[in-house]
Fold each of these.
Amino acid sequence: MLLKSISFPNQDVSLLANESLIEIFLKTVQRNPQKTACVFGDITCTYQELDSKSNGFAQRLLELNIGSGNILGVYLPRGIELHVAILGILKAGAAYIPFDIDTPKERIESVLLDFNVSFCVTHEILNEKLQAISFKETDLSQKSAINHAQADSLAYIIFTSGSTGKPKGIPIKHNQIAFY
């Protein structure tokens, strides 16, 4: 087998931002508060509405002492609530592990237990040992901006398919994906 080095001559490191995803999102909210941020079916959400709803969810997490250093599972179907949850988690300074809605329960439990995750944002409880944070019991109408995320803090953990037998988690920090 021959290994060859590949170079990418058009790399522009000036596009990388030493900011959190939330800092970039908040700048977008300031520039475009009434523009559409999300559309799902018949439901639309402006940047200002998405910001307000995610602030409410972040506030709820902080009230539960969930913030910097915590990792939450996110097991929600596609939709605006998914975006609210992810932004709220990041605004609280926490990180998340996303799960596709078709992920088998056993795999979700295994991943969450591997990372000692005790909270999962979902519509149903996956395991009695985990606590679910439901949108139905959460007030999502906060207006003030919340941002406990740092550029070098963990944003999320994505998992490999597990072709070697056990999925491996790859931690991603805000500044590894934040760019202009």
Amino acid sequence: MRTFTLSALVLGMHLTGAKAQTVQVSLKGKDTNVMISRHIYGQFAEHLGRSIYDGFYRNGKIQTGIVEALKKIRIPNLRWPGGCFADQYHWRDGIGPVSKRPVTINTTWGMVKEDNTFGTHEFLQLCEMLNTEPYIAGNVGTGSPQEMKDWVEYLNLKDSSQLADLRAANGHPAPYNISFWGVGNESWGCGGNMTPEYYADLYKQFAAFCPDYPGTKLKKIIGGANADDYNWTEVIMQRIKPNQAWGLSLHYYTIPTGNWDKKGSATSFDEQQYAHTLKAALKMETIVSRNEEIMDKYDPKKELALTVDEWGIWTDTEPGTPGYGMFQQNSLRDALIAASTLNIFNNHAARVRGANLAQTVNVIHSLILTKGDQHILTPTYHVFDLFKVHQDAMLIPLAIESPLYIKGNDSVNAVNLSASKDSAGITHITLANLDPNKPYSIKIPLTGKILSGQLLTSGKVTDINTFTQPDKLKLQVFKNVKTDAKGIVVQLPAKSVVALALK
């Protein structure tokens, strides 16, 4: 028998007696010259539950602790104000003196009062503090081309005009130069229950009146499909030319039970439910691949980006959460799903050039949870910390012959990975072992000296961080990797995420 020693920090876990199956990885081809866009690691903040108020923004102030945590993982963009909320949001309600802003009703999420104290300028101040690019979702559902045109002018015009002067009067004389603009959100559903044919024409109308002011070229994003609605993608690609947009969005959520009315618990699930949830999460590979195929028919040069600007695991709200709060805990299972999804995006980087986890703080698949002035980092936060090294690095295409993890009628590839080389010549490899019971020995034909290794794991896939145990899951040193002339061999623990750097 072989014993795999991970680190003294592995929370007393022991793999003694577990013989690891060898898994072979191979290079898929020579250098493909594909960059993994940093925008794959984007985030999402909607006026929903405690995402903004009592999350990013508390008692009239941006929470600097949250800002510092997110700066550490270098989030590249932040999408706002929605989501479904975007298509009922009128930007003029959120500018000017706070005391004079109107109180409106958030009819999408719980009929709660929206006091508009967090508006355009507050959002852009947050982005400046984060050193991240704003991604604004425009209102197509209840808005007009004129309203969106005015918002673009208000934010981007340098010269004097009524709107540019209004921006200056509101405290920002210089233009913000916002590039990323979503033209509507989920227009097939909460954004208007539209057909793809109708939305395609509406997109072209809205986009036509949003100009590139000097100094800023807009990156307009088409409202894309709901999960595997491939007809939506087909119609959009038939009717909108690649040069009429920067990207086409896609939304896909992992629902553990497959039932939107009763999604399943974030913390209480057995191994069969765990396996079933993984199978749902890894459907992302099929959805991305099928959308790529459709887009390639009409855009073989891959001019148009695929942007998965809402993704994550969506469970039942934690007991005791009022209304439409959508507050859920975040376990090792969710971290494994995040790592696997990011590996999928990395490996499809030729087409996938943007994505946004839903959502950053307190809602759905969060990176950070708050309680008053306190905050904790979730296991998924640590995944983004591990994976940040891939941002704007060159993809190293790998193929893996993964064994299956099987539980009952559900089976998934047990191991997935992605790799890249950064501008300093350092190779980064991120691996996920979804099998909760078995370690694997992974042979990878990449050579070099091991510079560092980090590990995220825990005793159970249901383990979480709490305000009483905020560091139950955290990054640990990982050393169980060997090098030889043919490459490296990684002893990958069960239910774990590992990141390696070599040169």
Amino acid sequence: MSLTQPPKSTPEPQQKSSSSQSSSNQNTTSQNAANSSRKLPALAVSVALTAVIALTGAWWLKGTVFRNIKGGFFRVGPLDSQPSEVDMTAGHDGSSGVSMLPGSVSGAKQKGLDAMAAKDWATAKVEFAAALAEKRNDPETLIYFNNAKIGNNPAYTIALSVPASKFSNPALEIMRGVAQAQNTLNQSVGINGTPLKVLLFDDQGEPEQAQEIANALAANPNVLGVVGHYSSDTTLAAADVYEAAGLPVISPTSTAVNIASAGDYVFRTVPSDRLAASTLARHTLNTLKKKKAAVFYNSESTYSRSVKSEFATEFLSSGGDVVAEFDTAEAGFSVGNALKVAKDQEADVIMLGLTLGTVDIPIQIMAVNKRQLPIVASDSLYSPRVLDIGQENALGMTVAVPWHTLSHAQSAFVGTAQTLWGGDVNWRTAMAYDAAMTLATGIGTEPTRVGVAETLANPGFTATGATDDVRFFPSGDRNQPSQLVKVVKGNRTSSGYEFAPVE
């Protein structure tokens, strides 16, 4: 099936952009080799299974099918876990009558939700259209509008899980990508003539809630694939459930390296930290000419530990030196003391492998540093909060990201996004669009869970993404390099600062 780029459509993001720079062929080759060795040969696994069957009896195999996914045979059968407490009866397509997003709901949107709850599809369509006219950058409303247009008619169903109540801006960015993909498909021919329905879930950015949602989705046979989750911790928490259920999941934003070994039904459209760290380390050594790094990370975050480890490995192997490491989760951590130690150790560059949370330690580091040492950072710091609060202190900070709108300004995806949302979109939106379109391509090939997973795991698989084709390494990682952006002064945001591609 060929999924083409969309015609421009009508129904703003508050977020900015991000971009893409190529990694070396040597890195890609070594990544391929490492990923290829992750799976046991099918024959070896088959022999092992024969032994297991002989020893344990046929009871374990009742209702079980073995399929070849990513190079090995794996069990697809009934779940051993108990039914989830997550309510699937509400539909989570707007028919619960409640918005997933925090904050006030417009009158028109609430009327649309009420109509959806009553299965009054015609009224729901009218009210959601009115809500989009009032606020066109609300992706939840656009998804519900498209779901209302489907009504009770046949549709293929995927789910989207985002941390709406905890990290609303990233959640909206991800939702816009999936909403744009659904809108694009359903305005044309759908998936081989069948429209796409999207169920929405708020995992609250919590691993336990992500696991509950995964259990509920696994138990719903209509769900053929999942776009999620936001953080590496939530994706890893849910991965075992998806694996046991044979339900393919694609994360657009989880970058921790160990997700590559999370399971054969786990994919991602965002490159792993290994590629981003390699790009950052080479830039630090070869362009910034800095060789002594002070690295800040949070030991309680899988993502942060992954970024720190990958950067340190690449930096050291390329001739640099990590002179200090600071764990911001440590009791008594002080930004001022840490920077003093870094200077005492003659650090000439700061690496931030951190996320933004309730306490914005990265922004505090920028404020105390006052641009005395250059800063390089991982993709989590591609955020409007860095621009709005960091401002002058953030100038010149370099961030590794998967994608940037200015690098693809003439693309059909960017043009449609600007028309649809009323402004620029960033890498999270592009990667989420790619995830939804990739699932749609798999569904179009074989509309079953295992069929989708097998299609995605095929070495020759390609899906048309926002601006680049989607291909996967044998591990399920995206075969695409990172690129660099930096904070500069500009008029594309209200703060007077923006991220722009590094030339």
